[in-house]
Amino acid sequence: MTTHADRDARSRRAPLSKERVLYAAMGLADKEGLDSLTMRRLGQKLGVEAMSLYNHVANKDDLLDGMVDIAFSEIDLSSNGPDWKSIMRRRAMSAREMLARHPWAVGLMESRATAGPANLRHHDSVIGSLRKGGFSIEMAAHAYSLMDSYIYGFALQHRNMPVGARKQAPEAAQTFLRRFRAEEYPYLAEMVTGHAMKSGYDYGDEFEFGLDLILNGLERLRDAA
Amino acid sequence: MTTHADRDARSRRAPLSKERVLYAAMGLADKEGLDSLTMRRLGQKLGVEAMSLYNHVANKDDLLDGMVDIAFSEIDLSSNGPDWKSIMRRRAMSAREMLARHPWAVGLMESRATAGPANLRHHDSVIGSLRKGGFSIEMAAHAYSLMDSYIYGFALQHRNMPVGARKQAPEAAQTFLRRFRAEEYPYLAEMVTGHAMKSGYDYGDEFEFGLDLILNGLERLRDAA
DNA sequence: ACCTGAACACCGTTCAAGT
DNA sequence: ACCTGAACACCGTTCAAGT
């Protein structure tokens, strides 16, 4: 039965478009996780039957591809800066923020076979910054592979942490410790109690240590060449 | 209807066990991808109905947890070696090989909340090697985070490459180039044509460049402390 | 103790039918 | 042109019933 309220809600809502579908999907995945993103739930969120979505995306893979490309477009690529290093540093920090905002993105990259336009633009911009910074093609390939492996790997590790460990390390570490006898894993126990359990510890802070080690190493190699 | 052949096959087969279920699941995921690993297909492979599997694993998550822990146990942790650096290098290379053998493993780590015994043993061994090598707790935490982010991130990147790019780069790069006009992404085009398309190029070879840069950087910081 | 068949509540996706 | 309802072939998982 179609009530007046239904009809009102339907006429009031903005018309569907691929863009609206993609942003609604991102919002759902951000808030409730990628598992909660089903065509039926997404349709429900948009006040529409699941089948209507197929008027705007070819299928679920197309939906996921679109989401990933939007995520890519959120990374800061501005190439004004004193040198390649500061540009790469800003990009890396921005990528990490994006991956923290959209925890599903790192897991989704895996299966996306075809890179979208934002992704291609991203590749081009990064390689361009390195080349203009004096890197040879080979060195630019090395550098890019290294930086992105670190960025995405860090996001993966961060995401795998027991939820609590990201913000309130101490409590999480305690429940963690309870799971095994300290004698069995002495070094691990030492690290948990003597480091991760300290208040104020946030695994996210580890990012800049590795990033700077990598950027400094690349700088050294570039200068030597 | 139960035929003689059915009965024979069933009596001939080894009795099911958690171990057999886990190894069959790994074989299926290795060969046909994680998407192909369904309880029904796994049961079929073992000559059993899907429901029988629940006698040996609590549910699918338990199955995946078990697979991940076996994968972890395949990483070489032997701690004989001249120094922390060579131990860490061998571990990293071994981890990368494991992740290449089991491409599903890196994607699965994401959702595994509870680390298995092999995983905990792994953590303890790595931290132990670093501590014995003269790293402070803080530096060991930095180093571990950096190395593993790189290892898993590299595996993720490697897995995301279009299939062909892993072995036969030139063909893959050509079809890649056909997808966009070179003028639009000049630096990307330069890299593809001038680097990735060269015969003999294998993205997997990039791993050691980054690994050694990281290990050398860590060594420098350790020596300075 | 282990395995099975039927059933349940979900998926993504198709297709003819509505407006 | 866009949306819907019913249907299809799949999932993971349960439960009572078989041996």
Describe the structure.
The structure is a homodimer of 225-residue chains. Chain A is mainly alpha-helical and 225 residues long. Among the domains of chain A are: 4-57, Homeodomain-like (Arc Repressor Mutant, subunit A, Orthogonal Bundle), CATH 1.10.10.60; 76-166 and 216-224, Tetracycline Repressor, domain 2 (Orthogonal Bundle). Chain A is built from 12 helices and no strands. Chain A has helices spanning 4-12, 18-32, 39-45, 60-73, 84-101, 104-109, 117-132, 137-160, 163-167, 169-177, 186-196, 206-224. In chain A, helix 4 (60-73) packs parallel to helix 7, helix 5 (84-101) packs antiparallel against helix 12 (206-224) and helix 10 packs antiparallel against helix 11 (186-196). The longest helix of chain A has 24 residues, at 137-160. Chain A is flat and about 55 Å long. The relative contact order of chain A is 0.09. The interface between A and B is large, with 56 and 56 residues. The structure holds a DNA duplex (19 and 19 nucleotides).
What is the architecture of one domain in chain A at the second tier of CATH?
A: Orthogonal Bundle
* Low-confidence sequence ranges of chain A: 1-12
In DSSP terms (H or I, runs of 4 or more residues), the helix count of chain A works out at: 12
Query: Helicity of chain A, in percent?
Result: 55-70%
Question: What pattern of helices and strands is seen along the backbone of chain A?
Answer: HHHHHHHHHHHH
> What's the CATH topology label of one domain in chain A?
Tetracycline Repressor, domain 2
Oligomer: homodimer
Per DSSP E runs of 2 or more residues, the count of β-strands of chain A stands at 0
The largest chain-to-chain contact, stated as pair and per-chain residue counts, equals:
A-B, 56 and 56 residues
- Supply the CATH superfamily name of one domain in chain A: Tetracycline Repressor, domain 2
Main beta-sheet annotation of chain A: none
* Shape by Cα distribution of chain A: flat
Mean pLDDT of chain A: 88
Separation, N- and C-terminal Cα atoms of chain A = 74 Å
Strand content of chain A: under 5%
